[in-house]
């Protein structure tokens, strides 16, 4: 039997937001069981058994999407189902947060009833569910901190940098609040890298995806042209060169990629809502340039003092016209460090010392390409042992660069193919404004080893 | 925050105006739903009268929500249910398919006798509904009915109708029929899969929804083809599903293939190779929970095929590397897989990775990683400089759990292996003074006995332990005795007074075993010290 018994959503403070029961084979108390477990066990596995009930959960935006079943199901399947449910909620509600789910509770229940019946999956595509949904979404904007708003107004600054990361900004909001139309393409690249102490790249890979969010009323075929010099090759067969070299890629089922081999373009008729048209990966240092080079130096302060100086030097390697919006460097230190003092190279930087986590955090805002930033930290050491480079391992770099892809992959051209040519020409200008193509490179795990 | 009290909402809902004010009514209903999910064991029966009234409302959303609330209060008893049944029965005749499906669903979800008596006729009627949406719901309602009265599965009308609907035009109806038949006929072995039926399902497989494909693929696993030719035919047709965007479909297809080729083991490697892209794809998708469950599945279900799976990852081991932000449980699973994948070529890279996580903030990750390092030391003779570096670093770590775990791993090595690690030993005396947990102290004392250390330092350490002897754990006392003895064997002149003192202390201890042991050492040394030293060293 492959039926889910209940699905419920638990808020960050462990209250139940929504609970939908599909079958009566598990008791109502099992929801409380899960919450208890959540409170007691520090690291809960995504699939576990408690009192004879199987629980499966995913954690998204601090919310837990939980399913339970009487008999064991393939955990991979339930996790995929929950991920799907999360995406459908995102398509319909715009943002998935406690507040937005509470506000849209009727909508969420409607969705849950259409997605499953008797614990078996029914419809799972937003566009197919849409006709059966009566509610209209209530858009909940992310809560802004009032203090920050006040200061910006007090100084007469109108433009405030958005608090939300570009990589996970809820696009649906703008689409829904304006005319309800729009077509968005995001190229998101996540960088995983480990840099050895001598600066050599010991591991570097990029996982990229082209995410399409489609809110156009009528379905049209789209043609998306990628870099013409794109090469797909085994990691070993790669060479130097400025062209885009990928290890491999896969496509969403609605994407026709017959012409991709020869002409590097994709044809697709997008379903309504969000989907990932293409995912790709690339690895090796030959074809990827590091967006940043981070160096770390340790200098002894003076004889007789146990304090040390740690100098961080961050060089940005991307083109000068591109600006990384958020960059932060986190360096772990010994717990014997009592305090730090810092000297930073520019005003847009800040440093923070967390005694609890024993780490220094250096944050930089708006770092333009081809520049160098420096930070000089003096660590006040109260322990008996000397601080050396190996005590600062590993430094973690976090960044977000919009308008830049690490692999160089770009969408050269995006065009809607209407059936009637005339109509297309008329609409072209209008539509051109409705397409939004963005690229962003974010760090997934970027480590600098210090010894 | 708006007032959420029951009385307030009840008053709102009962007022006459509410029926005409649709947005207000929707809002109130959503408050009721928030109530019933947020507070457990909340008695919602007071809401029954207004809710039953609203079930007949012309607004579809209000109707839907009212029905939902009704199913949530299905346990209580009320005369109002009769009214509700009437509304539902009227709605089953409605011209709107959504209303028909909704009312049937609600009717079946209610346990009360007034609802149950109308169930059967309504389900049978709607199984032949012109709308696919209603048929889907009707098919699923059979399961609900079955769980209340098992006799349905013997009912020829329903079962035959379901078998007929397997040939329905709507793919979802087909899948629903199959899953329902499989469940209600469980005692008889589920759906009968003839060769013809399998052929039909395979042909339609492409038209099913993602989950439909998964359910059907699972179902197909029951089928056993008669000839090798048929097996190959099936494999040819189903081959594309091995590499699907949905991991579930791929895994079920893989399971099916492995069953098919049970007697054709030569194909096994090829089948796994076809899954390679999907396997690697899971790791790059960024869904931690999925990766974790996937790894868990590989560990549990495919133990015999371990080698085949390792081959898939061999060239792509970097995909498995941990990411900083991943949850601890996933890091542990990944590290365990990585250590399986280790080979001559990737040794350095994987070792680096293990070293990196051996001092992780999460104690569990650190233990796992150190455990993996231990395996490497044992399985790869000739300790590399990197490993030495790793142990150096680990012992220097200021997190006590890291040091403690490292010591416990070091203890398990044979004396030969330890010789290679002798550089590490310089820090031991320092650590011995710092550590507090018994396990770690035992380990460090043992190691002090094993390594050729600077005697003055060891002497200091032992003396320090003697000074606080009464506070020590029994395990530590025992180890102290053994270490002193080992040191005495190496440097009799220097350690004799110390040993004497330790033996004396132990002989006056409360623990019988310890006293006995101390006496044993004493008598042995007393009888023939030279031979004793030869035996013990």
UniProtKB/TrEMBL annotation, chain A:
Record keyword Membrane present: yes
UniProt-recorded name of the protein: MHD domain-containing protein
Major localisation: membrane
Gene3D superfamilies: 3.30.450.60, Mu homology domain, subdomain B
Compartments in which it is found: Endomembrane system
Cellular component, GO annotation: clathrin adaptor complex; endomembrane system
Family classification: Belongs to the adaptor complexes medium subunit family.
Natural source organism: Dreissena polymorpha (Zebra mussel)
Domain MHD, chain residue ranges per copy: 180-449
Automatic annotation (TrEMBL), chain B:
Pfam families the record matches: Adaptin_N (PF01602)
Matching Gene3D superfamilies: Leucine-rich Repeat Variant
Subcellular location: Endomembrane system
Keyword Protease included in the entry's annotation: no
Primary subcellular site in the record, as a coarse category: membrane
Keyword hit for Heme: no
Keywords: Membrane, Protein transport, Transport
Domain Clathrin/coatomer adaptor adaptin-like N-terminal per the UniProt entry, residue ranges: 8-526
Gene Ontology BP term (one): vesicle-mediated transport
Record-linked SUPFAM superfamilies: ARM repeat
PANTHER family: ADAPTOR COMPLEX SUBUNIT BETA FAMILY MEMBER
Protein family (similarity comment): Belongs to the adaptor complexes large subunit family.
Name assigned to this protein: AP complex subunit beta
Organism expressing this protein natively: Dreissena polymorpha
């Amino acid at each position: 039997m492959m039926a889910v018994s209940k699905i419920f959503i638990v808020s960050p403070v462990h209250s139940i937001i929504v609970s939908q029961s599909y079958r009566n084979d598990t008791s109502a108390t099992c929801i409380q069981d899960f919450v208890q477990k959540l409170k007691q066990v520090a690291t809960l596995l995504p699939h576990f058994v408690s009192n004879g009930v199987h629980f499966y959960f995913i954690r998204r935006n601090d919310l837990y999407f939980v399913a339970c079943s009487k008999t064991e199901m393939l955990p991979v399947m339930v996790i995929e189902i929950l991920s799907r449910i999360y995406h459908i909620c995102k398509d319909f509600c715009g943002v998935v947060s406690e507040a937005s789910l509470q506000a849209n509770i009727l909508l969420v229940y409607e969705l849950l009833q259409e997605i499953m019946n008797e614990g078996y999956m029914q419809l799972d595509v937003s566009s197919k569910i849409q006709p059966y949904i009566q509610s209209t979404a209530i858009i909940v904007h992310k809560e802004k901190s009032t203090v920050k708003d006040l200061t910006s107004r007090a100084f007469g600054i109108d433009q405030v940098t958005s608090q939300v990361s570009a990589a996970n900004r809820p696009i649906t909001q703008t689409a829904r609040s304006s005319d309800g139309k729009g077509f968005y393409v995001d190229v998101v690249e996540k960088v995983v890298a480990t840099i050895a102490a001598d600066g050599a790249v010991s591991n570097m890979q990029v996982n990229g995806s082209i995410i399409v969010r489609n809110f156009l009323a009528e379905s049209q075929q789209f043609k998306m042209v990628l870099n013409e010099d794109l090469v797909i090759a085994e990691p070993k067969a790669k060479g130097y060169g400025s062209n885009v070299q990928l290890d491999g890629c896969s496509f969403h089922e609605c994407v026709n990629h017959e012409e991709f081999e020869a002409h590097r373009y994709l044809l697709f008729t997008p379903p309504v809502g969000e989907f990932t048209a293409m995912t790709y990966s690339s690895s090796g240092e030959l074809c990827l340039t590091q967006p940043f080079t981070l160096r770390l130096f340790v200098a002894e302060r003076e004889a007789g003092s146990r304090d040390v100086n740690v100098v961080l030097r961050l060089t940005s390697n991307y083109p000068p016209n591109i600006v990384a919006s958020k960059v932060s460097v986190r360096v772990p230190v010994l717990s014997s460090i009592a305090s730090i003092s810092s000297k930073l190279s520019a005003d847009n930087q800040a440093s923070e010392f967390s005694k609890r986590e024993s780490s220094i955090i250096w944050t930089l805002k708006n770092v333009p390409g081809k520049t160098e930033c420096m930070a000089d930290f003096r660590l006040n050491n109260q322990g008996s042992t000397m601080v050396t480079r190996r005590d600062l391992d590993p430094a973690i770099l976090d960044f977000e660069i919009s308008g830049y892809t690490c692999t160089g992959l770009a969408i050269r051209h995006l065009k809607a193919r209407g059936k009637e040519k005339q109509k297309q020409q008329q609409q072209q200008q209008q539509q051109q404004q409705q397409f939004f193509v963005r690229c962003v490179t974010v760090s997934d795990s970027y480590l600098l080893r210090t010894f | 925050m708006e007032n959420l009290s029951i009385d307030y909402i009840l008053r709102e809902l009962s007022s006459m105006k509410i029926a005409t004010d649709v947005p207000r009514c929707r809002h109130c209903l959503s408050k009721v739903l928030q109530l019933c999910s947020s507070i457990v064991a909340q008695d919602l029966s007071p809401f029954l009268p207004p809710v039953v009234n609203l079930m007949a409302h012309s607004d579809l959303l209000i109707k839907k929500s009212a029905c939902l609330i009704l199913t949530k209060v299905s346990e209580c008893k009320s005369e109002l249910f009769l009214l509700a049944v009437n509304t539902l029965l009227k709605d089953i005749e409605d011209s709107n398919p959504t209303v028909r499906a909704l009312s049937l669903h609600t009717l079946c979800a209610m346990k009360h006798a007034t609802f149950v008596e109308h169930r059967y006729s309504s389900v049978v009627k709607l199984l032949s509904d012109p709308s696919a949406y209603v048929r889907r719901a009707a098919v699923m309602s059979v399961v609900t009915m079955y769980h209340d009265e098992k006799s349905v599965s013997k009912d020829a009308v329903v079962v035959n109708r379901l078998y007929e609907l397997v040939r329905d035009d709507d793919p979802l109806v087909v899948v629903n029929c199959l899953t329902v038949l499989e469940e209600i006929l469980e005692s008889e072995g589920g759906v009968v899969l003839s060769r013809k039926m399998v052929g039909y399902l395979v042909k339609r497989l492409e038209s099913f929804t993602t989950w439909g494909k998964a359910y059907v693929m699972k179902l197909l696993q029951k089928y056993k083809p008669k000839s090798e030719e048929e097996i190959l035919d099936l494999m040819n047709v189903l081959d594309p599903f091995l590499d699907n965007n949905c991991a579930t479909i791929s895994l079920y297809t893989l399971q099916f293939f492995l069953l098919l080729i049970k007697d054709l083991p030569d194909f096994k490697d090829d089948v796994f190779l076809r899954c390679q892209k999907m396997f690697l794809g899971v790791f790059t998708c960024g869904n931690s929970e999925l990766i974790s469950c996937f790894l868990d599945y590989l560990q549990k279900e495919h133990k015999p095929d371990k080698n085949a799976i390792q081959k898939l990852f061999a060239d792509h081991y970097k995909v498995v590397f941990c990411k900083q932000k991943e949850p601890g449980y996933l890091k542990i699973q990944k590290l365990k897989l990585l250590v399986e994948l280790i080979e001559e070529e990737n040794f350095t890279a994987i070792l680096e990775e293990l070293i990196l996580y051996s001092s992780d903030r999460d104690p569990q990750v650190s233990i796992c990683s150190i455990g993996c390092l231990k395996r490497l030391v044992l399985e790869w003779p000739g300790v590399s400089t990197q490993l030495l570096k790793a142990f150096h670093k680990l012992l220097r770590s200021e997190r006590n759990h890291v040091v403690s775990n490292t010591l416990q791993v070091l203890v398990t090595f044979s004396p030969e292996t330890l010789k290679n690690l002798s550089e590490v030993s310089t820090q031991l005396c320092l650590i011995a003074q710092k550590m507090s947990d018994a396990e770690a102290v035992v380990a460090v004392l043992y190691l002090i006995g094993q390594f050729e250390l600077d005697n003055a330092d060891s002497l200091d350490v032992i003396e320090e332990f003697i000074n606080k002897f009464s506070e020590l754990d029994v395990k530590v006392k025992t180890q102290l005795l053994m270490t002193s003895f080992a040191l005495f064997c190496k440097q009799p002149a220097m350690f004799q007074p110390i040993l004497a003192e330790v033996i004396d202390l132990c002989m006056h201890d409360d623990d019988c075993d310890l006293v006995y042991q101390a006496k044993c050492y004493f008598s042995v040394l007393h009888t023939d010290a030279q031979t004793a030293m030869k035996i013990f060293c």
